[in-house]
Write a structure and sequence with these properties.
alpha+beta, 4-stranded mixed β-sheet, about 10% strand, rod-shaped
């Protein structure tokens, strides 16, 4: 049972220490940064798109106004010299206004193009992170499945053995495991307890030799249950 419990402990440790766990955690941290940057980039692109629509609308409105004034000039409807001069002056002002608005429109377009490039790069990176994450999760899940199968097999073997042992002995063993780093029972090899690696006193060896085959032996140094083997000196 002790050997099976050690194997179960090893399986549990492997489950917790799979390299994919750490890699996924690091990947999630990196992806979180990219996701936040992408949200910022999406917002910036959206704001610039609205700004561009407004700039386009402003330019179009001034162009339409200029076109109407130009049409009035070309049609000869304006006969008053003063009105004609004012209208010509306004057309000139509208030309300058259109030029200014087109410059502003171009500036917004350039900013939008740059922001969209950043947005596209961040989306590519986010998609790459997602793809890598999916691969790692698939590898991790496969490893966990294999370990879970090992755990189930070992658990079945342990249950079979436990069913043959006295409940009091199992309780003692479990308590010793908790207080001795997972080792509740150890082999007696020669005169040495393989749990604490200490040699037993001659008096203990004599007492053990005289004990019944089914007697529960305990190491006087560490308290662990001693398991007699063919290599034991008793």
């Amino acid at each position: 049972m002790q050997d099976l419990d050690l194997q179960l402990d090893q399986v549990a440790h492997k489950r917790k220490s799979l390299p994919e766990h750490q890699t996924l955690a690091e990947l999630a941290a990196e992806k979180s940064v990219v996701d936040r940057e992408l949200v910022t980039a999406d917002t910036e692109v959206s704001d610039l798109q609205r700004e561009q629509k407004k700039a386009d609308s402003d330019v179009e409105q001034v162009r339409q106004r200029k076109a109407r004034n130009q049409q009035r000039l070309d049609s000869g409807q304006v006969t008053s010299p003063k009105d004609l001069e004012n209208l010509q002056h306004e057309v000139g002002s509208l030309d300058r206004r259109i030029s200014d608005l087109e410059d502003a429109e171009l500036e917004v377009m350039e900013k939008l193009e740059a922001a969209e490039a950043v947005q596209a790069d961040l989306r590519t990176r986010a998609e790459a992170f997602a793809g890598r994450q999916a691969e790692l999760e698939s590898t991790r899940d496969a490893a966990l499945k294999e370990l879970d199968e090992q755990r189930a097999e070992l658990g079945d073997k342990r249950s079979t053995i436990a069913a043959e042992l006295p409940e009091a002995l199992i309780t003692l063993y479990q308590r010793l495991r908790e207080h001795n780093g997972g080792i509740g029972a150890a082999a007696l090899v020669g005169k040495r307890c393989m749990g604490c690696r200490m040699e037993l006193a001659p008096s203990d060896l004599t007492r053990f030799k005289a004990s019944a085959p089914d007697a529960v032996l305990r190491c006087e140094e560490c308290g662990r249950i001693l398991v007699r083997t063919s290599e034991s000196a008793v």
